[in-house]
Amino acid sequence: MAKIRSKKNSSKKDVIIEKASKLFREKGFGAASMRDLAEHVGVEAASLYNHIQSKSEILQAICFKVANDFLSHLEAVQSAPESALKKMELIIRFHIRMMMDQYEYVYISDHEWRHLPEPYLSNFLNQRRNYRRSLSDLIARGIDRGEMKNIEPYVAVLTLLSAISGIESWHRSRKIIPPDVLEDNMVKYLIEGLKK
Length: 196
Prior knowledge:
Number of strands: 0
Strand content: under 5%
Mean pLDDT: 93
Structural class: mainly alpha
Radius of gyration: 19 Å
Shape: elongated
Low-confidence stretches: none
CATH architecture of the largest domain: Orthogonal Bundle
Number of domains: 2
CATH topology of the largest domain: Tetracycline Repressor, domain 2
Largest sheet: none
């Protein structure tokens, strides 16, 4: 019987979650079975239960990892002595890098969160609302300080996040534009849209 091979500095559970994120992106959370996941990992389905309890546990791990990564970065940026515009640039760059470097995780968090069971679903939605509110507040401060155009902050947040989620197309196009070029061009375009 095959064993789960863990990578350096990662557990067998981490390997299962990483493989699951790719499977969930390809098939969708609802259509992916534990048997599919076992095949993806290369073990018997029963072996998975030594490390995880259910698909829902994996989905929770993915969604909350992404949410916590974004929240931790936001908190670090908010405490930095930068202008509101510079803080938004740092946040935009982080979102772009997450879409490039942790694509499956971010994709699952963005598209499959609806399958979270309660109370995790309410908790996740609350974190998401608070995160977007914090971004809106940051843009509102930038507008008040004359750094940003007088736009509706929440609309700006939705526009920024929607534009960044478009990096899915970059992944599907075999990444013909180098990541650093993509990042710099997107940041320039999005920041110019905010800058007064």
